[in-house]
Amino acid sequence: MFEIKSRCVLLGQYIAEHDATVRETAAVFGVSKSTVHKDVTEKLRREAPSLYRTVAAVLEKNKSERHLRGGAATKLKYELQKSASAVDQCGDHHGGVRAR
Fold it and tell me: CB under 8 Å to 93, separation ≥6 — which residues?
């Protein structure tokens, strides 16, 4: 016979193996962030305590790095906006020389 793993164990294994965030895990499994969080913080504790401890450490690390990821995303956003603005100000992509 084979063992059918519960969703919370599958989610927990994914987070532990990929060092994944709740958001990334939710996207991969097609469930909400709330579902992932509830499964790995409440249900996993009862079903697989050792996996729970591993996942809790990953989630804590992700939480401590969250401000860094957010800052990097904001920086990238404004760099992209700045480069798009520079292209718009040129008027065209041919250095001001128009084909006739």
Answer: 87
Look at residue 82 and tell me if it is in a domain.
Answer: no
- State the CB neighbour count (10 A cutoff) for residue 7: 15
Distances (CA, A) of 71 to 37, 80, 86, 91, 96: 23, 14, 23, 31, 36
The model's confidence at residue 23, banded by pLDDT at 50, 70 and 90, is very high
| Amino acid 55: pLDDT | 97
Q: Please tell me the distance from the alpha carbon of residue 35 to that of residue 39, in angstroms, as a whole number.
A: 6
Q: Are 51 and 9 in contact (CB under 8 A)?
A: yes
Domain count, the chain: 1
Q: What three-state secondary structure class fits 5?
A: coil
